[in-house]
Amino acid sequence: MSLHDTLTSEEQLAELDLDTLKQLVGLVEYDDREDPFPVTGWDAAVWVVGNATQTAHFFISAFGMELVAYAGPETGNRDHVAFVLKSGAVRFVIKGGVDPRSTLLDHHRKHGDGIVDIALEVPDVDKCIEHARSVGATVLEEPHDLTDEHGTVRVGAIATYGDTRHTLVDRSRYDGPYLPGYVARTSSFQRREGAPKRLFQALDHIVGNVELGKMDDWVEFYRKVMGFTNMAEFIGDDIATDYSALMSKVVANGNHRVKFPLNEPAVAKKKSQIDEYLEFYDGPGAQHLALATNDILATVDALRAEGVAFLDTPDSYYEDPELRARIGEVRVPVEELQKRGILVDRDEDGYLLQIFTKPLGDRPTVFFELIERHGSLGFGKGNFKALFEAIEREQERRGNF
Ligand SMILES: [Fe+2]
């Protein structure tokens, strides 16, 4: 399949072209004829939260997303409400329980706010489910059609880490706003004058945190079940300091649109950030979603103005001569990055700019990354050590290390 045939309907609607996507998310050519489980791209990240009405508003007002569809009691869904939001090619579905007996409320009681479903667009749901079953995956939903006046969507679902699932969606015969059962809906929210049209255009990767010793099992799951391949980035000691240690490997689908870094905690003197996640999410789950932007400076300025909180980057990170030597020339002076706390990483293919928000909900679990790629297909592994060590140097100066 040529890349031209693989633009998703979402990307076409968002007026994204291939060159833009290659830069934004590192899209590559690949031949899907031998792929046992062809994946076109992301369909949606489905969230379960404690208050979908307000989370949707937060993503609309602070993150510049657009409300496009809704389901709830008024549309015949008495179990829960669901708000469908878009930003460029990114689709979020925000769900919250309405009926006190809703199973979504049980999910929320256990995990807090989080991602319940990483839905993927596939050209052939039945082929994927059949292959997944044949290699031992848990099929949660057999392939079936959902139909309304806008056409038919074929869906099926398999289980992945923790209570997370992958719904597989073929919407090639459907032109409704999301799925049957949803109605088109817009928000009355008025964007601030001068605000960027969009703060992010595409989803770059979703990171999964899995239990100690289970990372390789999940890498193998994505290889065997979904035909994903290991990306070059392979992290061992790169993300280890005395304080916080983790192991990470990255798998991607054929065209690299869908990338899943998988983390497991590693033994260190102190509790790692992965251990903390596993404790507060009460099991494995999606840790962060990386949102691709073509202007991370404007995006960060807009988000900060809306009160979005980011992880602090110490000044020593930018003043480190090693970092300056490592990153070389980037599109703006380092001072502009420092002002905003934006991190830089460079590899043999190019560089990337990135920044991480603080956790989005009440528990120290799921958060966002903003990423602007300039050729680099990596995930900023150079930054983890540099950032953590910079923090430790600061601690040492204060006599706290
Ligand atoms: Fe990331």
UniProtKB/TrEMBL annotation:
GO terms for molecular function: 4-hydroxyphenylpyruvate dioxygenase activity; metal ion binding. Fe cation binds at residues 205, 288, 369. Pfam families: Glyoxalase. The keyword Oxidoreductase applies. Its EC number is 1.13.11.27. It comes from the Bacteria. Its cofactor is Fe cation. One of its GO terms (biological process) is L-tyrosine catabolic process. Belongs to the 4HPPD family. This is 4-hydroxyphenylpyruvate dioxygenase. It comes from Nocardioides simplex (Arthrobacter simplex). The lineage of its organism: Bacteria, Bacillati, Actinomycetota, Actinomycetes, Propionibacteriales.
